[in-house]
Specification:
Blueprint (H helix, E strand, L loop, with lengths): L10 H19 L12 E7 L2 E8 L2 E8 L9 E2 L4 E2 L10 E6 L3 E8 L5 E7 L8 E4 L2 E4 L4
Antiparallel strand pairs: 1-2, 2-3, 4-5, 6-7, 7-8, 9-10
């Protein structure tokens, strides 16, 4: 003996389902990848807790690349020959060069000192700095120079 189940679909049962779907899709749009021109030449991008990971093209071939975008000006990420780069939003960018960072520290930067010479420096835990990161005579600090 087979049992048959009848499901009745009414307007009152469809409305909550549609609302749940719309709210779910709206939540997904809030977690969109960071913006920038990289979207024109990169594919399969994933945001992994502040690290943007993509396959980016140059001269017809794709290569994996990533960037921790917490130091980036919003909308400034671009594909530089299969390497993701961005404009840094903190003031130290004006007097430092060769800046490299990962998910929790600025691993190296060459920063100008008051005497005009350069100093190699680093900065631990940049995520904990809520204000500006400044170059204070060749040393990176959180906040303005003393």
């Amino acid at each position: 003996m087979a049992f048959r189940t009848t499901v009745r679909i009414t307007r009152s049962s469809i409305l909550p389902a549609v609302l749940a779907l719309v709210v779910g899709l709206w939540g997904l749009s809030l977690q969109a990848d960071p913006s920038g021109s990289y979207t024109k030449s990169c594919k399969d991008c994933v945001d992994n807790d502040g690290e943007l990971i993509c396959q980016c093209s140059y001269k017809g071939s794709y290569k994996g690349t990533s960037i921790n975008y917490g130091l980036c000006v919003e909308g400034s990420i671009w594909n530089d020959k299969q390497t993701l780069r961005c404009t840094i939003k903190h003031s130290f960018k004006n007097s430092c060069s060769n800046i490299y960072w990962n998910s929790d520290r600025i691993t190296s930067a060459s920063c100008r000192k008051k005497n005009g010479k350069s100093a190699n420096t680093s900065f631990n835990n940049w995520k904990s700095c809520e204000g500006d990161i400044a170059n204070c005579d060749g040393t990176l600090t959180c906040g303005p120079c003393p």
